[in-house]
Amino acid sequence: MPTLFDSLTAGDLQLRNRVVMAPLTRSRAEEDGVPTDLHVEYYTQRAGAGLIITEGTFPAFTNRAFVGQPGIVTDEQQAGWARVAEAVHEQGGTVVMQIMHAGHVTHPGLTRGAQPEAPGETAPDRGEIRTYDGKQEIITARALTADDLERVKNEFVAGARRAVDAGMDGVELHGANGYLLHEFLSPVTNQRDDEYGGSPDARAKFVAEVIQAVAAEIGPGRTALRISPEHNIQGVPETDHDDVLATYDALLDQIKNLGLAYLSVLHADVDGEFVAHLRERFNGVFMLNSGFGSNTTRDEAEHMVEAGIADAVVVGRPIIANPDLVERWRNGAEENQPNPATFYTPGARGYTDYPFAEALAPAAQH
User: Fold this and answer.
1) Is 179 an annotated catalytic residue?
2) What is the pLDDT of residues 199-209, one digit of tens each?
């Protein structure tokens, strides 16, 4: 049975261990969406993870989700990410870009004036959203037309091409956390009456088509997917377990033979039957993130890998606070604690200034 510190091949990706850095929203870009020196330093510090998944990155300004989000639309953004990829690779790391469309979770104050777009006329379940013009009231998205769907698909493909051309080892498509692709999967946010709405098969169809198109452009071994079934977040509830099962079965059946790099699942019940069912249904490299409540511990991560629940463990908050988390876990070193107050603030504080274990060693000896 493999251990947390063993290597792993995931499609075309080579992971030197099975600790994966989650795609963590950090909000450090300017309005132009160009990665900065801080991004280069932040990701390079964490290159010891088996795989880095970047923060969610927008493939068009019309679908930016939050203030400080980087993009992969312009030549300048691509060049910024190229610096990140090169620096991570120089440290022996592997990095993929998460590409996401905000769906209804955005505002014209983020999208340079464009109205939010979604499968139907829906809105997230909160009253306000932070924009470049300050906090604004949420507005209802417009329903995507057939022509819009083709455009959105092409935006994902173009973003993936730019990511790989920038030197990224692949891309992860964001089908989780209440954003556009997730919105297509839920019968609450997807009430379309065309070929992309209605039955579980139909609701899964657009998501599968995006994945297929990206895989055709950059190769399936460089393409991955993240999902969060039953997460019930941002106005995308999935509370009917039988429907959830049928929907994700339909999705996985449409993509499982593509030879994707991996499937990443966010779910609270890592030992439950549903997670086990998804792992078997996908029949490929399976990554898992418990992502709820307390921080993932080394014991929990080791359990998931050694019990065969997942091939790799996706870790969030602990890797924010511990750029050298893998070595700390390997050596049983004490961990820094993350400071949530700095998660979404600008600057280096709480971003690149967490100490490495070596800096703590003299104090630990007294």
Assistant:
1) yes
2) 999 999 999 99
